[in-house]
């Protein structure tokens, strides 16, 4: 168990870090007008080092940086919703309490581990066969964890976006944080149909965090002017 004085130092350090994140968001991310949908890829492929994130202290994974940036975007939006896509996660907007961005990022990663079957929220232990070791009823913990990790299907960016068309829901901005190129599967075709049917001025931004350096990617000839592709992470 951590010494109280050390725990207090760590707590103050984390609060200072979160203050820095909020200040960075306020100064570096201009207010995002209108309605914004933020999609974060949380698939297994995101658990690789984010080599462009050199100013975040210890090495960070692409998943961590994507979630942190997604929450930073959300805090800068007039109106927004954050969705996750990947294997075995709830197909619904992320609901996070009013707490520091870094704390929310860590909480989401912990939940993803539970949903994917690698971590148990009930006993807070790795799933290595030691089911519910801190609980009075390990068998009940095992059954509950197996049930919760089995009920969630694979969620895709295309599936989330298609519902916007089905319900004629207008959004002004779509931001996708992933480790992929400009368009995850099905997204380019969706954008064409959505702009014809719902909002011709839709702004689409794809951020590929697997790139070793940060840059704004050059648009291909004939690309829609409201499609923006960014690679890497920059402080």
Describe the structure in your own words.
With 235 residues, this protein is α/β, with parallel strands linked by helices. The protein contains six helices and eight strands, in the order H-E-H-E-H-E-E-H-H-E-H-E-E-E. Helix 1 crosses helix 2 and helix 2 packs across helix 3. The longest helix has 25 residues, at 4-28.
Layout of SSEs?
Elements: H1 4-28, E1 32-41, H2 62-76, E2 77-85, H3 101-115, E3 119-120, E4 125-126, H4 138-150, H5 157-166, E5 173-178, H6 187-197, E6 203-208, E7 215-216, E8 227-231
Parallel strand pairs: 1-2, 1-5, 5-6, 6-8
Antiparallel strand pairs: 3-4, 7-8
Given the C-alpha coordinates, what overall shape results? Answer: globular
Q: State the secondary-structure class.
A: alpha/beta
Question: Helical stretch count?
Answer: 6
Placed side by side, the strands forming the largest sheet appear as 2-1-5-6-8-7
Oligomer: single chain
Radius of gyration: 19 Å
Q: Provide the low-confidence segments as ranges.
A: 124-138
Q: How much of the sequence is in beta strands? A: 15-25%
The end-to-end distance, rounded to whole angstroms, is 34 Å
Return the average pLDDT rounded to an integer.
76
Number of strands: 8
Largest sheet: 6 strands, mixed
Order of helices and strands: HEHEHEEHHEHEEE
Helix content: 25-40%
């Amino acid at each position: 168990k951590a010494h109280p004085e050390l725990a207090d130092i760590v707590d103050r350090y984390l609060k200072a870090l979160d203050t820095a994140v909020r200040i960075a968001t306020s100064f570096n991310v201009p207010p995002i007008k209108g309605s914004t949908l933020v999609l974060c890829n949380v698939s297994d492929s995101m658990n690789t080092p984010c080599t462009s994130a050199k100013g975040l202290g210890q090495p960070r994974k692409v998943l961590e940086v994507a979630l942190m940036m997604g929450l930073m975007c959300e805090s800068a939006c007039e109106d927004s919703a954050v969705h996750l896509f990947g294997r075995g996660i709830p197909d619904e907007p992320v609901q996070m309490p009013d707490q520091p961005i870094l704390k929310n990022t860590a909480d989401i990663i912990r939940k993803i581990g539970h949903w994917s079957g690698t971590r148990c929220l009930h006993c807070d232990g790795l799933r290595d066969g030691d089911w519910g070791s801190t609980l009075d009823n390990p068998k009940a913990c095992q059954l509950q964890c197996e049930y919760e990790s089995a009920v969630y299907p694979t969620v895709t960016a295309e599936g989330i976006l298609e519902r916007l068309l089905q319900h004629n829901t207008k959004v002004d901005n779509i931001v996708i944080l992933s480790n992929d190129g400009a368009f995850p599967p099905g997204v380019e075709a969706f954008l064409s149909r959505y702009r014809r049917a719902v909002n011709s001025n839709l702004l689409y931004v794809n951020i590929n965090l697997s790139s070793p350096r940060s840059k704004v990617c050059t648009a291909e000839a004939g690309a829609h002017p409201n499609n923006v592709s960014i690679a890497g992470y920059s402080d």
